[in-house]
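One record is kept unedited as follows:
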Amino acid sequence: MFTDHHRLPDPLPAIARLPRGLAGVVFRPEGVADPRRMGRAVARLCRARRLVLVVAGNWRLAADLGAKMHLRGGRAVPGMRRRMALTSSAHGMAELVRARRAGVMLSFLSPVFATQSHPGAMGLGPTRWAAMARRSSGAVAALGGITGGSVRQMPRTRCKGVGAIGALVA
């Protein structure tokens, strides 16, 4: 699950619905009124539910919360230790390669489908997404327009996971 301060101002109820021990949260602190307070609440809930927690773009907050890092486009954040990186976003082959070189375990390639997070942006579609994932040497997950219906269109042999926002909004 990716947090989004616009579409999901309070992520805690959605996090509480994630399957215990089988999911994770990418906490994106930008735009959050008090990112430390919200981050602590998210971290507590993730620990209680045995969910992986990564923090996007802020290695100090990640360290304070005992979390790993989510890189943007595979770009390391200045001051961050390399072993902090766990996941990354990617919007093309160059970013998939950069993320792999940064040592991330999982890259979220997006957008697969049309999404409210990027209005007007063209989705890659499952076929193009699969071709890019196949060319990548790392594990790739799908992000962007993921719903219960769209996830069934993803190739099971290449898609190592999915990230969602809208599908989790109650």
Q: What stands out?
A: The CA atoms of residues 2 and 26 lie 5 Å apart. The longest helix spans residues 35-48. The mean pLDDT is 92. The helical segments are 12-17, 35-48, 59-65, 93-101, 125-135.
